[in-house]
Amino acid sequence: MFFPLWRKNTLLNFIHMSKRIALFPGSFDPITLGHLDIIERALPLFDEIQIAVGKNSEKKYLFTLEQRVDWIEKTFSHQPKVTVITYEGLTVDFAQKQGVNFLLRGLRNPADFEFEKAIAQANREMVPQLETVFLLTSARYAYISSSIVRDVYIHGGDFKSFVPESVQP
Fold first, then answer.
1. Domains within the chain, CATH numbers bracketed
2. What pLDDT does residue 114 have?
3. Coil/strand/helix, residue 83
4. Is 146 in the active site?
5. pTM of the predicted structure, to 2 decimals
6. Which member of 59, 60, 78, 155 is catalytic?
7. What is the pLDDT of residue 8?
8. Which of 95, 145, 141 is nearest to 85 (CA)?
């Protein structure tokens, strides 16, 4: 079948745009079972999920960027729809560079919702075509945060029940 060049390019753009690609940004310092829960439950919703590990020179991390990326890559090594990347700067700018259609965010509680809602509204103002998708963390993981895991780790506590096997000693 013959398509004029302008129709062919339009068709190719449509096919590319119809691919559901989500960016799941965060510091993942470290990745927790809550993060894992959100990603695994999001897999059927998207063709691809890019886990974007943010670098912020003003933020003090407990674990190195390389360690955080390694843990996530090991956690999802069996999952071809998941890629792990790093980025700096505004998430919406990076999302546009990556050609993603959606930002994926997890919500543990009402405070998370209020915080994430404000960010999503600002993002929509800057990049109207980028949608934010919220998933509620499963109740059994809703209390887990990276800050709690870091605190338990720093004080020599047993943090294994909060993180994937790749993070466990």
1. 20-167 (3.40.50.620)
2. 94
3. strand
4. yes
5. 0.87
6. 59
7. 44
8. 95
